[in-house]
Description:
The structure is a homodimer of 141-residue chains.
Chain A: H1 11-24, H2 32-39, H3 43-55, E1 59-62, E2 68-71, H4 80-87, H5 104-128, H6 133-138
Antiparallel strand pairs in A: 1-2
Helix pairs in contact in A: 1-3, 1-4, 2-3, 4-5
The first copy, chain A, binds a DNA duplex (30 and 30 nucleotides) through helix 3.
Amino acid sequence: MYLCLIMSNLRFATAIHILVLLDKNRNELITSDFIAGSLNVHPVVVRREIKVLREAGYIESKKGKEGGCALAMEANKILLGDLYKLVNKENMLGRKNRPNPDCAIGRQMNNKLDVLFNKAEEGLVALLNKQSLKDFSDSFE
Amino acid sequence: MYLCLIMSNLRFATAIHILVLLDKNRNELITSDFIAGSLNVHPVVVRREIKVLREAGYIESKKGKEGGCALAMEANKILLGDLYKLVNKENMLGRKNRPNPDCAIGRQMNNKLDVLFNKAEEGLVALLNKQSLKDFSDSFE
DNA sequence: CTAAATGAAACACTTTTTGTTACAATATTG
DNA sequence: CAATATTGTAACAAAAAGTGTTTCATTTAG
Lengths: 141, 141
């Protein structure tokens, strides 16, 4: 398991933005250019995140002219904690030093930090999972 | 308030390592060189973190020959959630894009994310605050 | 005075993250 | 079938964040 405690990238904000737009435009195919316009980033950045969301089963996309993407799940089944884990999959664990193994404390430190970080991660994900994409999206006017 | 969800730096791990060493060597002044040896990093990196811990009142240091630093508080008064906030003070809020203000969704997004991130941060800090430096330090053999 | 330590600034280096270009593949429309 | 609009992806460039290092002034003990 991994733990990310500092949101040092924009991926969670980007992913949730994409999903809200798709939820607000159900029954339509939305292009990455349109999403990029709302997010104010490059369309390729959007497509990168779309790939992750698609592979996780949250959305599906259609290639070619008149293509675009749409939600592939009910919005109330998409939980924000799961989304958080998804976009931070690779580097979830809090970063650790490589302490001196000759030091009695240093030797044990990373195992202790792992325990601490894992507990924190579980709590955080559980907390975020109390809210679904639907809850979040419905809070918009 | 701020929220950091991904631990993309080593500062929390470094700060907690320093504090555990000081707790395990109470009644002694520990040099940044000694700490750096245990952490396996440059002494200046240690002194940078020591400055933050000192200004927060957790430790005090003595200059000059035979100098060093020591805990300035009881270890059970130092809560890990507070420590987490301290080392991530500047960039705690999850990072956000700068969405297009002409988009009805984009316009509202960052306020909504702030609410979400603040709630998550509070929960995370509360969870970490269940553990003090003493609890953590005592778990070492 | 000398030695050992902190304090702090400045800069270099590395890693992470984001932005951009380019182009192949695919599907729709006429 | 040709033209067009779109996704998908790779490769690279640029920017930002984080860490490492050098340097030196200051302080204190002996």
